[in-house]
Amino acid sequence: MNRAAVLLAAILASAPLLAQAPKVQPPKVQAPPPVQPHPAQPAPAPAPASTPPAESPSTPVSPTQLKTAIGNLGKFDDTTRIAAAKVVRRAPAAQAVPALIEAATSNGDGYVRFRALVLLSGFNDPRAREVMSSALDDANDRLRTVAYGYFEHNLENGMAARLLKKLDKEDGEFVRPALTRALAAYGDDPEVRKALTALVMRGQDVYRGAVIEALGDYRASYALAPIMDVAKLDGPLQEDAILALGKMGDKRALPTVVALQKTASRVRQPTVAAAICLLGVNCESHQKFVIDTMNFSVKNIGYQDLLRSSTRALAAIAASGRQDAAAALLDAGIPARDPARSPIALALGTVALRNTPLTIKLFGSREDLKDSALLLRDAFDMLEEDYEIERFFATMRHTYWQAATGTADRRVADALIQALEF
User: What pLDDT score was predicted for residue 174?
Assistant: First the structure.
């Protein structure tokens, strides 16, 4: 047995067993109470961009300059697209919003329409609602994806019924997960509960995984039973289900998760530990186990599956509000090089999108702020969640203009604006 294998065996052997913690008596199984919509993660902090961007100094542009910039949103060259988006974001809302609405609804380039709709969302203008509503029925997959994201975070009466009708025909690889996530935000609707609970056990694995993840993020305990069934089965959805049980915070799931300490594979153990932590049992020791596993996987080549599992598990713990878990991602990710750096960066990106206030606070405490920002840039370069990233950008602009000069929040926002080039 080589040295790495010996070290791994020692780490896994150190995994805290629930039996070592004070006994927790799970409550008797009963019908869950009505579930109200929750933020994207069960963190006490508000979701990204929960407040509109502050009124801030803008950069006047001519109509020709603005039109050119919007047209450049569809250019192949990254530098050109980034520069164009900067011009649009910094233009006065009175100029930018009408131009973006026109581009999103009538531009001949489908990608320009998509990027215009994304940028429009960052202005928090009430006129965006009608454009988003129309986009729900657009033939352009990217526009529908943005619209689903918008109505996930901007709930309105009657939208649940409209979204439910989309389930029968929406099957795009990136679009359907956005639809089911939007539906999860309407979890107080009985028909939504019925539909999403059924989808846990039905359909393609890639779509089922997205449903399970969304139900966990929205603490949808009405779907607890089928998700517990999935968690018991070794397969591609087991990790999604285990994390969802933890994020739900429903201690009825505890016996199922604890049993997996003995039956689940090695690669699932960080996820199991994270779920037990999220369920409120012996969290410090379980978090330490996840961090130790991540650090081992970074230092020893050949354990990429374990690295991916441990970073994802740590992201779930961090997004729930544990800043020290997020700090561990920075500590491991900043000095790392690929292939280890990418999964750590993606985990950090998940935390940033799901719990932006925690991310701002964490970055403000770091001496290596620039390097932290560059790790987050790596994440955003890989993520496909354009609408969520734009919400993050809007929050940073709001933070920058609301914070006093010289404060930690102002420094963080400035560093991220520079590093992420928005």
Answer: 87
